[in-house]
Amino acid sequence: MARREKLEYRSSLQKYRLQQYRLQQYRLQQYRLQQYRLQQYRLQQYRLQQYRLQQYRLQQYRLQQYRLQQYRLQQYRLQQYRLQQYRLQQYQLQQYRLQQYQLQQYRLQQYQLQQYQLQQYQLQQYQLQQYQLQQYQLQQYQLQQYRLQQYQLQQYQLQQYQLQQYQLQQYQLQQYQLQQYQLQQYQLQQYQLQQYRLQQYQLQQYQLEVRFRMCSFGHCRTERKV
Question: Quick one: which of 128, 136, 145 has its CA closest to 98?
């Protein structure tokens, strides 16, 4: 009987060692699996960071291109404005010279009229025509000034509108980046919570398995004593 109990004890001890070995192998596999998942997660994070970096550089490049286009457009408009100003000055200079010439002609005609004693009626008609011409030229000049002011006002309003659009785009971009950051933080918290719950569940399963095996082992010994 003692030899039989000794053999049963050895057999139980071998089974227990085999169970312990399998349990160690299972834990080793779980640890390797966790390490592999961790490596995969880090690789995904690295790729995600690289992708975001590329997107950021692309956005910066587009922004630079947009600013360059805006600068060129402003330069072009400035050149056009200067050209218009130059043409306006040339036109005004020509008008002034014409007026001076007409004035000289008028004085010459007046002198000639005085010299040759033209009729008063003809002189009055000439003066009336000169007055009408001056009124017409004055109206034309006022109209040109009004159109110029309107053009400058439209240019100013257009610049203000473009500035508002740019500020709005910058604000929307900042809001989008903030939302993306908050979403990433939330996903990271969810992932950490899941990992914590999984670890708790595995620990509970392990504790239950150990208790079950210990109880099973003790039960076998109780039956042999009886």
Answer: 136
* Distance (Å) of CA 135 to CA 101, 103, 130, 138: 17, 15, 9, 5
* Per-residue H/E/C for 82-102: HHHHHHHHHHHHHHHHHHHHH
Amino acid code (one letter) for 124: Q
Helix (H) or strand (E) holding 223: helix 120-225
Q: pLDDT tens for residues 137-181? A: 999 999 999 999 999 999 999 999 999 999 999 999 999 999 999
Q: What is the pLDDT of residue 6?
A: 76
Q: Tokens 């099973």 map to which residue?
A: 216
What integer pLDDT is reported at residue 216 of this predicted model?
A: 78
DSSP state of 119: -
- Quick check: 77 and 162 in contact, CB under 8 A? no
Tell me the three state secondary structure of residue 26: helix
* Those residues with Cβ within 8 angstroms of residue 220's Cβ, 6 or more apart along the chain or in another chain: 12
Look-up: residue for tokens 């992932």? 191
Distance, in Å, from the CA atom of 131 to the CA atom of 153, rounded to the nearest integer, reads 33
For residue 1, give the 3-state DSSP assignment.
coil
Phi, psi angles (nearest 5°) of residue 117: 55, 60
How many residues does this entry show for the chain?
226
Q: Using 50 as the pLDDT threshold, list the residues of the chain that sit under it.
A: 220-226
